[in-house]
Amino acid sequence: METIWGINESMIQDNYDKMCKWAANYIIAKINAHKEDRPFILGLPTGSSPIGVYKELVRANKAGEVSFANVVTFNMDEYLGLPKDHDQSYWYFMHDNLFNHLVDMKPENINILNGMTDNPEEECANYEKKIASYGGIDLFMGGIGVDGHLAFNEPYTSLASRTGVRDLTTDTRIVNSRFFGNDPEKVPAQALSVGIGTVTDSKEVLVLISGHNKARALAATVEGAVSQKWTCSALQMHNGAIIACDEEACGELTVDTYKYFLDIEKKERI
Ligand code: GLP
């Protein structure tokens, strides 16, 4: 389905829980429909936004509704300098919130950038090669920051960027300091991250946008110009991008945009 904004679909749900349920159902349906010999390649984010999706994926996996035995995952990013066992590393987050609870996820199928690498450039180049070796990513789920960053691609990162080292902005370190004792100085200053080009090379991209604090970012993603100021706006150039959002995140959309998406997607509201 094409829209005049280029975002193929935007699922507006009543609240965070329903947004997560819808997104999880979408992922489950895609995995179950995957009949090729090669594994299903799933890109995954961290942050608060996907937690409800992971809970639902775990529930469905335990209930036998979806198997991860033929799923290979690639995570979006990792803080540079945090060891795996640090409770704020994204390795730790992913195992704590998802991988440790799936009954048939194979550890060798989990790919997360190594934040303790002594050769970040090589680590990132190898990550790109590994994604390519599988034939690319089938579905990349993402979240966005309040400044519209996708993975750790802060404002003014090239929309053609590939996996690499990223400097985090002061704003992002302040926002993420809620996980580091509210001290922005404790938030690592750099991260390894897939690029915007890495994400948009995926066959499909599903981005979760929830809450009032993401309202400006959602409007920039859907209604704004394609611009490296809002790296999430690159989704407008993708032919398989879906935004799953909740009512709260819609606060900065024009009434016309809001009504448009409600109109075309009302059948799928849960
Ligand atoms: C971090 C991550 C992003 C994530 C963003 C938003 O900066 N690197 O990948 O999308 O936070 O997180 P949240 O979902 O907690 O708002």
Write a concise keyword list for the protein shown above.
single chain; 270 residues; alpha/beta; Rossmann fold; seven-stranded parallel beta sheet; three-stranded antiparallel beta sheet; 10 strands; disordered N terminus; binds 2-amino-2-deoxy-6-O-phosphono-alpha-D-glucopyranose
Walk across the major sheet and give the strand order: 1-10-9-6-2-3-5
Distance between the termini: 20 Å
Globular, elongated, flat, extended or rod-shaped: what is the shape? Answer: globular
The whole-number mean of residue pLDDT values reads 93
Summarize the main sheet.
7 strands, parallel
| Low confidence ranges | 1-8
Query: If you consult CATH, what is the topology?
Result: Rossmann fold
Count of alpha/pi helices: 8
* CATH top-level class: Alpha Beta
The gyration radius over C-alpha positions equals: 17 Å
How many strand segments?
Answer: 10
- Any guess at the CATH architecture? 3-Layer(aba) Sandwich
Count of the domains: 1
Order of helices and strands: EHEHEEHEHEEHEHEHEH
